[in-house]
Write a structure and sequence with these properties.
Subcellular location: Membrane
Strand content: under 5%
Organism: Aphis gossypii (Cotton aphid)
GO molecular function: transmembrane transporter activity
Membrane topology: Multi-pass membrane protein
Helix content: over 70%
Keywords: Membrane, Transmembrane, Transmembrane helix
Distance between the termini: 35 Å
Length: about 500
């Protein structure tokens, strides 16, 4: 016994310190962080409601003409795409609000237009009232989801940031599935009232578990509140280093303060945007995300959400459309859980590239089946292969192209310009989404019908793979400061300068 005690006492000090650090790091899960992320992620529930509602609404309005009258083709397009008009307005709003009033205050403000919007839709007696309601839900959707993403990126540890931010995908998928399940069997007004009730969930959740982002508080000079917020997020006995984390954030902020041009900082928003675009840490992620969002929208992954019932009717002829739509929603929901696990364990780049490859191949095969059927091959095999390919297409999209581009801006933009740039970037994405959804029928006509659409989306899916391979950096398990440093010296990911690790080894 004495010999064992002697050996313990003789153990080198640095080994004891390493053991202590390892013991402290054994438990990386933080319930405070998890509850805060879940609370703000509930806004994606009504985002799923908004995305899935038009897929069941328009077919019903074409049947129940007594409710709001007979709809024109233009009115149907506006009902489907109007949330993509409200969304850019919401994105421009957060460009002013995120930095001025805070991440959580902006988030809480976004919840009330959603409640009002669903109430208007449920009570609508005219197609224009439905469009106004969807404009409000689109505005709320963009403000809520983007402020939630920024908030989660700032409060989450690097190891858990991907899985925490993907919780929203689970909520969104559940919202879409709920709309499909209820909308295929219930009247659209009843479905709208269900969404109205569901819109109160994030209001209740965020009342308890969401203190303001400590990163934002430090950048605003509110050090006492920032320290209090950090203590809340590190309340577990396994969590250490509250003061160390505070000092690290404070040092980063002070270094950046030395580089800030005070005249520019106090000038109007357009001059500030122009000034920041001169920095490689800003203009590179801006350019990459502008292109990436165009590619994302024209893979058809969101157009399919808005026109799911009508597209499945064309692609999977001969199968009961109710079961096909429910199967589609169920697959998307189940895959959102898989996406959460995969984002925790795998990088953004491989997930995006594998997702794009599978989407491209399945769309091409689905188009080939559609072509063979148009040539007279009516075998049941063609129908089921088409359905299987569409299910694989949406499944692959759910773990990559559909999800990851929304996460990247919150990770890639520097903290001090997130509020300034994420809004316009997301406005751009939603504007492209509006074009893709609103002019879907026109594009189909230009490309010669559904066959042209399927092969066009297939080509863009493969093109997105090459874009990610060349330009999008890996952000998985990286500190936000490390991601920012990457853009200072790198543009092409394959030619990136690799850091030396001598200091880390020492």
């Amino acid at each position: 016994m004495e010999e064992e005690n002697t050996k313990l006492n003789e153990k080198p000090m640095h080994e004891l310190e390493m053991e202590e650090i390892q013991n402290k790091n054994k438990k990386t899960f933080d319930w405070a962080e998890f509850l805060a992320c879940v609370s703000v992620s509930t806004t994606n529930l009504h985002t799923g409601f908004a995305l899935g509602f038009s897929a069941i609404l328009i077919p019903q309005l074409e049947i129940y003409t007594d409710d709001v009258g007979k709809l024109s083709k233009s009115q149907c397009s506006w009902i489907a795409s109007s949330i993509s008009v409200g969304a850019p307005l919401g994105c421009l709003f957060i460009a002013f609000s995120l930095d001025r009033i805070g991440r959580i205050s902006t988030f809480k403000f976004s919840l009330w237009p959603c409640v009002i919007g669903w109430m208007l839709i449920a009570l609508a007696f005219d197609p224009n009232i439905i469009i106004i309601g969807r404009l409000l839900t689109g505005f709320s959707m963009s403000v809520g989801t983007n402020s939630a993403n920024v908030y989660m990126a700032e409060i989450s540890s690097p190891k858990l940031r991907g899985s925490m931010m993907s919780i929203g995908s689970v909520m969104l998928s559940f919202g879409v599935l709920s709309m499909y399940c209820t909308g295929l069997y219930l009247h659209w007004r009843v479905v709208a009232w269900i969404a109205f009730v569901g819109a109160f969930l994030p209001i209740l959740m965020t009342a308890f578990w969401t203190p303001e982002s400590p990163v934002w508080l430090i950048h605003k000079g509110q050090d006492v509140k920032a320290l209090k917020s950090l203590k809340y997020f590190k309340n577990s006995k396994h969590s250490v280093g509250v003061q160390e984390s505070f000092n690290e954030m404070k040092n980063i902020k002070e270094k950046k303060d030395l580089l800030i041009n005070k005249d520019i900082e106090n000038s109007n928003v357009f001059r500030r945007i122009a000034w920041n675009l001169s920095k490689p840490t800003v203009f590179k992620p801006t350019l990459f995300m502008i292109v990436f969002f165009v590619l994302q929208q024209f893979t058809g992954i969101y157009t399919f959400q808005f026109h799911a019932v009508k597209m499945l009717q064309e692609v999977t002829q001969g199968i009961d459309i109710k079961y096909a739509t429910l199967l589609f929603g169920l697959f998307r929901f189940l895959l959102s859980f898989v996406a959460t696990g995969m984002l925790h364990n795998y990088g953004r780049r491989p997930l995006c590239m594998i997702s794009g490859i599978i989407m491209g191949i399945t769309l091409f095969i689905s188009g080939l089946c559609f072509y063979l059927r148009s040539q007279g091959d009516d075998s049941i095999i063609m129908t089921w292969v088409s359905l299987l390919c569409m299910l694989l297409y949406i499944s692959a999209g759910s773990v990559g192209i559909m999800l990851i581009p929304w996460i990247l801006p919150s990770e890639m933009f520097p903290t001090e310009v997130k509020g300034l740039f994420i809004g316009p970037i997301m406005a751009w994405c939603n504007a492209v989404m509006f074009v893709a959804v609103h002019f879907y029928e026109d594009l189909k006509g230009i490309l010669g019908g559904m066959l042209g659409i399927l092969w066009f989306y297939s080509f863009i899916s493969i093109l997105s793979v090459f874009f990610v391979w060349l330009f999008i950096p890996e952000t998985h398990k990286k500190k936000l400061s490390e991601i920012e440093d990457y853009f200072k010296d790198n543009t092409l990911y394959l030619l990136r300068k690799k850091k030396t690790v001598k200091n880390e080894q020492l």
